[in-house]
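Write out a sequence, fold above all:
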Amino acid sequence: MWPLLQSPFHVATVVLLFLVPNGKAFIRAIYNRNSTSQDFSALPALFGPPLPGKGLAGYLIEAMPANACHPIESPPAPRNSSTAFIALIRRYDCTFGAKVRHAQQAGYRAAIVHNVNSQALVDMTIGTEESQQQIEIPSVFTGEATSKLLRKICHSNEGARVILVPEYYHFAWEEVCRAISILVAVVTGILLIVKYTMGYHIWRKRRNPLREEQGKESSGSTFNRGVKYTECAICLETYEKGDMLKILSCSHAYHGKCIDLWLLTQTRNKTCPLCMQRVTVAAESPDLDIEGCIEEERDEGNQEDEEDGHNRERQ
């Protein structure tokens, strides 16, 4: 069963590896006291460190000057060590590397560079001369419409913040949740099938052990009336050693408790469950023990053999 359970997990892993996009990100704005969020498309820069796997959250502040081609003003003093600020910078007038480096020098934890008069996304690259100057903060590029919406949200909602998230994390999480749901359904179905299949075989083995043994020796247990009994026709349980039986006047036998209950349900005419004849419990056949009946039958058979032997000797 293990290879069968292993297969869905392998398939889901391969699918996720092919579906997860590379080199993309998105900006999530959270406002209205954390009750509302909105996502915007973005592209991470081709330089500097990548965005953290779980995203980078901070308060958005417009750079001064807006294009950040010169050193910009520092953000306000943080309330605590966990407070981060993200600079919103306008495109053009200088290189992307210079803009992000000025944001880093001013104390920002990340930078968002937006397009001008366009919503198109472009890859932010860095020149060979600037590559020697290490950039230690991540940055992303977005469109002008997005920058306007971000300004509006951050200016009109106190406490509003943005989160820069690598899209593969966002996408993978949704796909993982979907894959887990599918796998849970598949595994549950497999386990239910195995459970009921195994349970059925166990039930068959418990139900028919006597019948299997009887099949090897004879077709049934023969009692002193010459009638074969294998199971009670009322409860459908196979007779076992120690079971107490009652034989009706029609020669059909049942568990004593089963036939007693059957006869109690009939107020007038007492009938056999099998042949529906009017019957009574045979007076000469009280509660019978299967093993006792078999022994009794053997004793009677031995007595008959002895009598036949005596008769032959007399002749």
